[in-house]
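S.,

As promised, the manganese (II) ion run. Input:
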Amino acid sequence: MQSDFSDDFQICDRDLTPATLDQYLQSESLAVDTETMGLRPHRDRLCLVQLCDVRGKVTVLRIAQGQTEAPKLKQLLEASSVTKIFHFARFDIATLQHYLGIAVQPLFCTKIASKLARTYSPRHGLKDLIRELEGIDLDKTAQSSDWGNAAHLSEEQLRYAANDVRYLISARAKLTQMLQREGRWELAQACFGCLPTLAALDLRDFEQIFEH
Ligand code: MN
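Predicted complex:
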């Protein structure tokens, strides 16, 4: 098993360093995930933002309680030259908008891509997706844990947080190939384009407005 705490892993507080921002701006894509206190953005604060670039450099960024901005993170996540890859982007971009005022774009969501491409499977969770596409078994035991005590995160929590972004760039490449092969790539891109609207509706508590 590869080491999780090598030169390719770092922890930042409150915002990215200038050097990390410069490095990540060179990457054509960036895997992103967040950890929060729960699933309701208005109630459950943002605790961590994890990032991984095409070279495998992972950053875990700790967000302080009451923090309302992270200018370098905002510059990166809004940079049009860098595609941001999430698994279930709808949630993460809502929480990044709500807590840090970041309008993330452009987007790729591996969960939407999986639903459009892997119609042979009912399982589109990150663990199932990464097992099939990458042959890696993600350990999700730290998923439901206390991310609020950011100064004292356990090694297990940090490993979990890092692994959630480590395989998304490779998974995106495979899903893109599948979508192109099946003639659904343009539909997928249109879905990614809708995500900021869906997140804005979620933040204003509108539900199911496309239903009859
Ligand atoms: Mn995660």
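Residues 8 and 57 are 5 Å apart (CA to CA). Residues 33, 35, 164 surround manganese (II) ion (CB under 6 Å).

- D.
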